[in-house]
Amino acid sequence: MPIPKAELHLHIEGTLEPELAFALAARNGVDLPFADTDALRAAYAFTDLQSFLDLYYGLMAVLRTEEDFAELADAYLARAAAQGVRHAEIFFDPQAHTARGVAMGTVVEGLGRALDRSEERHGVSTRLIMCFLRDQPAESALATLREAEPYLHRITGVGLDSAEAGNPPSVFREVYEAAAALGLRRVAHAGEEGPAAYVREALDVLGVERVDHGLRVMEDPGLVERLVREQVPLTLCPLSNVRLRAVDVLAEHPLPRMMAAGLMCTVNSDDPAYFGGYAGDNFAAVRRELDLGDEQLRELARNSFLASFLEDDEERRSR
Ligand code: ADE
Ligand code: ZN
């Protein structure tokens, strides 16, 4: 039995497996620039975050209808459940869809259809987190928030993702203030490829409650002290960090040092179709390569529920 856990850092578009991508391409009449699933998988040799993002955004062309988004999410939830995930807080990238003519409502209602039946079908409770693309202008993020207003009953929070280097969190101050005024929870990717200073900005300027990645915080001891004191959760993604070359090899991942420092760490899968594993695979990999013991794995699993946006009573039930 895999250890029960919550997944807090998961891009639904990053769960698009090659087989489903080709099936949706055929159904929607989309031409993919790959001969077959093997050729597509062979392209998953990333050199950095941008090399991944280019393929990730390109493959989204196959996602067109509500049914496509529902199938994508349902397939993820089935896989996650099989690996012990009891609760999933799922990111989506609306601008990557609206920019190609797929309406916000199509995306949210499609994902919502799968999420609505997730507890019954898979035993997985869910939340949706809408991410803004930090390599697009702040005005586009603000317009996206306005477009999402009719669907806020389905959306728990906002996040910030895409190319980090040179795109600091502070640019998005206004849209995060507007999101907070709407009662949305706030998270942001920071310290994946960008510096520890971006983690400080995400906390101080955007008011985030969790930091997605935060891999580079160890470069700033003062920041570590603060994150420990405030017990700010970090949603780490070890297999992602290896595939995107944020760390050279998993055995050198800072997770054990971060835990030893008292940081509130969680382990997540990011874009599992591209990075070689779902939540349970990430747990297994850190156990094996980083020599984590049972007590540390239990701590990671416990943190995942504590850091979730579940209410206290829901949290206790799902553990
Ligand atoms: N979008 C999807 N996966 C991402 C990642 N690891 N970092 C930034 N943006 C992303
Ligand atoms: Zn991510």
Automatic annotation (TrEMBL):
Family, according to the entry, reads as follows: Belongs to the metallo-dependent hydrolases superfamily. Adenosine and AMP deaminases family. Adenine deaminase type 2 subfamily.
- Record keyword Metal-binding present: yes
Q: Which PANTHER family match?
A: ADENINE DEAMINASE
* EC primary class: hydrolase
So which domain of life are we looking at?
Bacteria
Q: Which GO terms describe its molecular function?
A: adenine deaminase activity; zinc ion binding
Q: What is this protein called?
A: Adenine deaminase
For substrate, which residues are the binding ones?
D271
Lineage at the top is: Bacteria, Bacillati, Actinomycetota, Actinomycetes, Kitasatosporales
Q: What does this protein do?
A: Catalyzes the hydrolytic deamination of adenine to hypoxanthine. Plays an important role in the purine salvage pathway and in nitrogen catabolism.
What is the species of this protein?
Streptomyces genisteinicus
**Catalytic activity, reaction form:** adenine + H2O + H(+) = hypoxanthine + NH4(+)
- List, alphabetically, the InterPro entries matched: A_deaminase_dom, ADE, Ado/ade_deaminase, Metal_Hydrolase
| Residues carrying the site annotation Important for catalytic activity | H213
Q: What would be one Gene Ontology cellular-component term for the protein?
A: cytosol
Give the cofactor note.
Answer: Binds 1 zinc ion per subunit.
Q: Which HAMAP family match?
A: Adenine_deaminase
Identify the NCBIfam families for this entry: aden_deam (TIGR01430), PRK09358.1-6 (NF006850)
